[in-house]
Amino acid sequence: MKIAVDIGHPAHVHLFKNFVKEMENRQHEIVVAARDKECALNLLNHYKIKYVNRGAGSNALFGKGINLIKTDLFLYRLAKKFSPDVLIGVNNAYIAHVARLLKRPSCIFNDTEHTKLSNIITYPFAAEIITPSCYKKDIGRKQIRYNGYHELAYLHPNYFKPDQQVLRILGLKKGEKFLILRFVAWKATHDIGHRGISLENKIKAVKEFSKYGKVFISSEEKLPEVLEKFRIKIPPERMHDALYYTTLLYGESATMASECAILGTPAIYLDNVGRGYTDEQEKKYGLVLNFSTSSKDQELSIKKGLELLDIPNLKQEWQERCQKMLSEKIDTTAFMVWLVENYPDSIKILKKNPGYQNNFN
Q1: Do 303 and 196 belong together in one domain?
Q2: Closest by Cα among 120, 31, 14, 130 to 74
Q3: Residue 71: inside a domain, yes or no?
Q4: Side by side, which strands form the sheet with 106-109?
Q5: Average pLDDT of every residue of the chain
Q6: Same domain, yes or no, for 135 and 229?
Q7: Residue 30 counted as domain residue
Q8: Number of other CB atoms surrounding residue 72 within 10 Å
């Protein structure tokens, strides 16, 4: 079987890395194309995944339109030569367009409800749209829901074992409290019109949380001098180890908040629209605490962070909640491998018997 995968973001590397390795182990042929965005290519190199660099793309709205045409053409040429049986990506318009042109099926994964523009130019061309069961929108007959999260594709205990060597890299001792703050760039298409935590409250969060342990900042953008000295300096592939051992995550990244939920680490997530998965992780499992980015909620979120840090057995409590969640969710990678390897019969099975997916745990 031949499979084409497109990587548009570092998070997609993690989502597909175990899938790619497992499918190759099963003697399937895979071609990976990747956008040169942040640390995506570094991660692919680290995990020894061969890829074709399709360029950096654009963050500007007009530039995104031009890039859509250029990337469609690039991937069409690549896929036409490779002749894949299935094409996959994450809410990936390029993959959906190219698959339609080649008259091949595309499996589009998505866990973000408010990607309106991307959905408009992707969904009509996709063969299947694969979402977590907690996804808040009904997409229609193309939608396949699975009882998991993207982050379970790489942080499920079947794949991830934390390495405490990250503490040495961070200059910390075993058991020493530290906190991670995550700030995003707000440049994605679905971020248009959204603003994150104010600089004033970023500084306040650092000042208040520093009373409980060393503070590290992960940021997509350049930080002002007053915050730059807190920037975390570890290889990108070590971030999940850091998230496992940190006492608390505070910030604007839904993905990192969900990663912490999988790892049993308390997470405070700020965003005005939220996600189905972070909502579920709060309401059903008590693992993520969701706030808007209003001035009032920014203040409340910092206060809630301080309250959590005062709980003596905070991590132990979260680990117990995490085990409950893990017991009820499936191994996303195992599900993906079965879904693609047995396509299109797998789709027929799931539509007839959605509970079949519970075999993948």
Answers
A1: yes
A2: 31
A3: yes
A4: 52-53, 29-34, 2-7, 86-90, 106-109, 128-132, 143-146
A5: 94
A6: no
A7: yes
A8: 17
Strands 86-90 and 248-251, sheet pairing:
unpaired
Which residue range(s) make up the domain with 290?
Answer: 165-328
At 185, the pLDDT band (50, 70, 90 cuts) reads confident
Query: Is 60 exceeded by the pLDDT of residue 228?
Result: yes
Q: What does the alpha-carbon distance between residue 197 and residue 195 come to, in Å, rounded to a whole number?
A: 7
Q: Are 51 and 33 in contact (CB under 8 A)?
A: yes
pLDDT band at 361 (very low <50, low <70, confident <90, very high): confident
In whole angstroms, give the CA distance from residue 157 to residue 319: 13
Amino acid (one-letter) located at 208? E
Residue 6, domain member (yes or no): yes
What is d(CA 330, CA 70) in angstroms, rounded to the nearest whole number?
37
pLDDT value at residue 57: 77
For 95-136, the DSSP string reads: HHHHHHHHT--EEEE---TT-HHHHHHHGGG-SEEEEETT-S
Segment 250-278 mean pLDDT: 97
Structure tokens at 77: 């040429």
**pLDDT at residue 345 is higher than 80:** yes
- Which residue, 40, 49, 159, 140, is CA-closest to 90? 40
